[in-house]
Protein backbone atom coordinates (compact mmCIF):
# COMPACT_ATOMS: atom_id res chain seq x y z
CA UNK A 1 0.00 0.00 0.00
CA UNK A 2 2.84 2.40 0.80
CA UNK A 3 4.07 2.08 -2.78
CA UNK A 4 0.77 3.43 -4.06
CA UNK A 5 1.00 6.33 -1.60
CA UNK A 6 4.50 7.44 -2.63
CA UNK A 7 4.04 6.80 -6.36
CA UNK A 8 0.68 8.60 -6.64
CA UNK A 9 -0.90 5.60 -8.36
CA UNK A 10 -4.67 5.71 -8.41
CA UNK A 11 -5.20 2.05 -9.24
CA UNK A 12 -7.48 -0.20 -7.25
CA UNK A 13 -5.90 -3.25 -5.64
CA UNK A 14 -7.78 -6.42 -6.61
CA UNK A 15 -7.03 -9.54 -4.59
CA UNK A 16 -7.08 -12.89 -6.41
CA UNK A 17 -9.30 -14.89 -4.08
CA UNK A 18 -8.94 -18.03 -6.22
CA UNK A 19 -5.47 -18.62 -4.74
CA UNK A 20 -5.92 -20.68 -1.60
CA UNK A 21 -2.49 -19.99 -0.08
CA UNK A 22 -2.39 -16.23 -0.55
CA UNK A 23 -3.66 -13.79 2.03
CA UNK A 24 -4.10 -10.02 1.72
CA UNK A 25 -2.06 -9.49 4.90
CA UNK A 26 1.06 -11.17 6.24
CA UNK A 27 2.40 -10.35 9.67
CA UNK A 28 6.08 -10.47 10.59
CA UNK A 29 7.59 -11.24 13.97
CA UNK A 30 10.39 -8.80 14.75
CA UNK A 31 10.95 -10.21 18.24
CA UNK A 32 14.48 -11.44 17.42
CA UNK A 33 15.58 -7.88 16.62
CA UNK A 34 15.27 -6.97 20.29
CA UNK A 35 18.28 -9.14 21.09
CA UNK A 36 20.36 -7.28 18.52
CA UNK A 37 19.63 -3.89 20.10
CA UNK A 38 18.57 -2.71 16.65
CA UNK A 39 16.14 0.14 16.08
CA UNK A 40 14.82 1.38 12.77
CA UNK A 41 15.90 4.89 11.81
CA UNK A 42 13.58 5.29 8.85
CA UNK A 43 9.78 5.15 8.88
CA UNK A 44 8.24 2.68 6.43
CA UNK A 45 6.63 5.28 4.15
CA UNK A 46 9.87 7.30 3.96
CA UNK A 47 11.89 4.17 3.17
CA UNK A 48 9.49 3.13 0.41
CA UNK A 49 9.55 6.68 -1.01
CA UNK A 50 13.38 6.77 -1.02
CA UNK A 51 13.55 3.33 -2.64
CA UNK A 52 11.02 4.33 -5.28
CA UNK A 53 12.90 7.57 -6.05
CA UNK A 54 16.18 5.65 -6.29
CA UNK A 55 14.56 3.13 -8.64
CA UNK A 56 13.23 5.89 -10.89
CA UNK A 57 16.66 7.51 -11.06
CA UNK A 58 18.55 4.28 -11.75
CA UNK A 59 16.39 2.43 -14.28
Give the tags:
59 residues, mainly alpha, 0% strand, flat, GDP-L-fucose synthase
Tell me the Rg in angstroms: 16 Å
What is the overall shape? flat
Helix % is 25-40%
Q: Strand tally, please?
A: 0
Question: What is the mean pLDDT?
Answer: 80
Sheet bearing the most strands, described? none
SSE run:
HH
Q: What is the subunit organization of this protein?
A: single chain
Distance between the termini: 22 Å
Uncertain stretches: none
Structural class assignment = mainly alpha
Descriptive report:
The protein is an all-alpha fold and 59 residues long. 36% of the residues lie in helices and 0% in strands. The protein contains two helices and no strands. The protein has helices at residues 2-7, 44-58. It is flat, with a radius of gyration of 16 Å. The two termini are 22 Å apart. The model has no long low-confidence stretch (mean pLDDT 80).
Amino acid sequence: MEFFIVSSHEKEIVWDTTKSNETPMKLLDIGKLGGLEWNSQTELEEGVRKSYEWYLGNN
